[in-house]
Amino acid sequence: MDFTIWDIVRNLLTGLQWTLLLSLVAFLGGGVIGLLVMTARISHTSAVRTLARAYIELFQGTPLLMQLFLVFFGVALLGVDISPWLAAALALTLFTSAYLAEIWRGCVESISNGQWEASASLALTRFEQLRYVILPQALRIAVAPTVGFSVQVVKGTAVTSIIGFTELTKTGGMLANATFQPFMVYGFVALGYFLLCYPLSLSARYLERRLHASA
Predict the structure, then answer these.
(1) CB 180 within 8 A of CB 168
(2) Where are the domains of the chain?
(3) Which of 127, 172, 193, 199 could anchor a disulfide with 189, C-beta 3.0 to 4.6 Å?
(4) CA 161, CA 168: separation in Å to the nearest integer?
(5) Which of these, 213, 209, 203, 212, lies nearest to 147 by C-alpha position?
(6) Is the domain 5-214 a CATH 3.80.30.20 member?
(7) What 3-state DSSP class applies to 4?
(8) Do residues 163 and 87 touch, judged by C-beta distance below 8 A?
(9) How many CA atoms lie within 13 A of 60 on its CB side?
(10) Rounded to two decimals, what is the model's pTM?
(11) Which residues contact residue 44 at a Cβ distance below 8 angstroms, ignoring those fewer than 6 apart?
């Protein structure tokens, strides 16, 4: 079967859409879980802090590829049929949550203790202190590194091709085998990742300069 350049680009755009969707799911899901883990990480209860720290070290200290294998094959061993899409989304969400939790913990802990003490003097609970006093200030610091980390999430989706999820890299591999033009195909794949990641990198640098300048 003969492939035109348009056929290659059209198929890669489909893979690019799945890459973008997986990135969004992992980032949003990772953000929700990461916020919970971050809250546990700064808890006054030592057991809760220890569990949160173990969670973070587990996912930061092991390769994403291994985490994908454990989710994809591990769940199957329990007798549950899991699709490559669901396994990729779950593994990447957990991976993302560990890094976002640690990024946000650093931002929260950069807020001076005086803010905690002032809010405590108003008889606010720990949750109310976080919600109304600490997190609004930490958000300003967290925006730039959070946007910057989203680039790593997008690039991390490439690893999911190993379990059969048909995103941009997997689509490129199949097209390279079908067309016998790997240089051109992977050149387009690289361009696709660049078009996704470069605007995010520019946004992170812009936000960092703007927020620091206004501070």
Answers:
(1) no
(2) 5-214
(3) 172
(4) 8
(5) 203
(6) no
(7) coil
(8) yes
(9) 14
(10) 0.90
(11) 126
